[in-house]
TrEMBL record:
Entries under InterPro entries matching the protein: 6-hairpin_glycosidase_sf, 6hp_glycosidase-like_sf
Stretch list, region Disordered: 318-341
Protein name (Swiss-Prot/TrEMBL): Prenyltransferase and squalene oxidase repeat-containing protein
GO BP: carbohydrate metabolic process
Coiled-coil stretches noted in the UniProt entry, renumbered to this chain: none
Organism, scientific name: Geodermatophilus nigrescens
Domain of life: Bacteria
Amino acid sequence: MAAIAAEQAPDGALPWFRGGQLDPWDSVEAAMALQVGGEHGRAAAAYRWLAARQRPDGSLAAEYRGGVETQPGVESNHAGYLAVGLWHGWLSRPDEALVAELWPVVRRGLDLVVRMQLGSGAVSWALRPDGTPDDTALLTGNASLFQALRCGIALAGLVGEPQPDWELAVTDLGEALRTDPGAFADRSRWSMDWYYPVLAGAVTGEAARARLAAGWDRFVVPGLGARCVADRPWVTGAETCELALALVAAGQPEAAREQVAAMQHLRDDDGSYWTGLVYADDARWPVERTTWTAAAVVLAVEALAGGTPASTLFADPTALPAPGAAEPTGSAAPLPGRAQP
């Protein structure tokens, strides 16, 4: 956690590394890791940094450097992922004021995601320059949005503002993720498309275990971790730890522990993590230590350790409301001052 905190800018920006690029999805992931470490103020500052840059349509730029948009395109996964961070933060340490402050930002982002949903139930990966959704949907991004919409529904129950459009959208999206591979672009070479539907809770139980088993030999390098791409001799820390999260969600914690242990060759002496290793050349590549790689380690360990409400976010897909349910099991009463359902 300290290695992640060391890369955060004074204004709250949480980039890949100090002076590097910042994309909203990875920034949220890094902020969640800070939350695990008790750095609630730092996590909130990262979320506020993103909130201040949200556009009126609910979008964020795909990339920033030094606070400047360097890739202004609108991508759905960036728009929606703050919901996951804010719900994780609520589970870690309930902060009614922060939820009330950021709820409009979450609502605008997920409203945009729903507007980008295609007829198949999948969500377009990006908006075209004319503002219409691209016809292409990416499976990993859609699995992440499945989780984001469910977190958004949980937050909606918390603040007393039900969002039936989100419930309909996540129902159709979950069906597409489980039954319609043709709704998504073929990126099956990438390990994320293999495990992410399990990690995000769209595929559960025996179906989840079968999915992970089917791709195991293709993606997992014994003793080193998971390949990022099936046909490249390159293992990456974030993908390995995200696979561990999927294994925990599928009820296979021992296998998850093995993967977290296997990728520790990427740990630097200061506690940061190198992004990956080209094992055919015994060379770290790219030569960078990213906040989101360290964050994936922290979140995997949190899910394995259990014992806190926040650990259930990735470890127990049933802890979030099922499509059609307005509130998660055991949810708190709506926040003071909010409209009641």
